[in-house]
Amino acid sequence: MLHSMARVNQLLDHEEYISHMEKIDMLEKERLFCKHGFEHGLNVARIAYSYLLENGETLLHKESVYAAALLHDIGRWIEYGTGEDHAEASARLALPLLEECGFLWDEIQVILKGIREHRRHHEDHLTLLGTALALADDWARDCRHCSGQDLCHKYHEAMNRVMY
Ligand SMILES: [Fe+2]
Ligand SMILES: [Fe+2]
What is residue 3's DSSP assignment? Predict the structure, then answer.
């Protein structure tokens, strides 16, 4: 079955989304570790969605999963500037974008909660979307071929993880 991704496509074409991503790309140009551009968002979306499907979770719509994943790090550029937790900043920036792209109030609540939770791997009581995003965020990284291995504090943990 093919799902409509019209609102996600609208999001990707939104000038504010593009502007957030451009800021991140610029600030991460010299970054040795994982970057947080469009490709990272898309990888997280695909992995989070396949994780949910594999676990028989069909309550979350594909569009909501993709929207949350594509927006989960858009506040990174704020963290680089002010030190604010980017999960919070991303949720704040995501709200007007989701509204403008036609997401409904209840969908928006689920998406924002997932974005806020995406860094809280080790906490109980995460929402389903928060859990999927947190797991996919790790699985989305190609640690095996990364040139920053020696300096990355996540490398060893990452290499011992199950593949997804
Ligand atoms: Fe993040
Ligand atoms: Fe991420």
Answer: P
Q: Tens-of-pLDDT digits for all 164 residues of the chain? A: 678 999 999 999 999 999 999 999 999 999 888 889 999 999 999 999 999 999 999 889 999 999 999 999 999 999 999 999 999 999 999 999 999 999 999 999 999 999 999 998 778 899 999 999 999 999 998 877 877 888 878 777 777 776 66
Q: What is the whole-number distance in angstroms between the Cα of residue 58 and the centre of ligand 2?
A: 23
Spell out the domains of the chain, with CATH numbers in brackets. 6-159 (1.10.3210.10)
How many A from CA of 146 to the centre of ligand 2? 16
Crossing angle for the helix pair 38-54 and 128-139, nearest 10 degrees?
120
- Kindly give the distance from the C-alpha atom of residue 134 to the centroid of ligand 2, in angstroms, as a whole number: 8
Tell me the CA–centroid distance for residue 56 and ligand 2, in Å: 24
Ligand 2 centroid distance, CA of 71 (Å): 9
Q: Which ligand lies nearest to the CA atom of residue 42 in the structure? A: 2
CA–CA gap between residue 86 and residue 75 (Å, rounded): 5
From residue 16, give the alpha-carbon distance in Å to each of 72, 94, 98, 101.
14, 10, 11, 12
The pTM for the full model equals 0.93
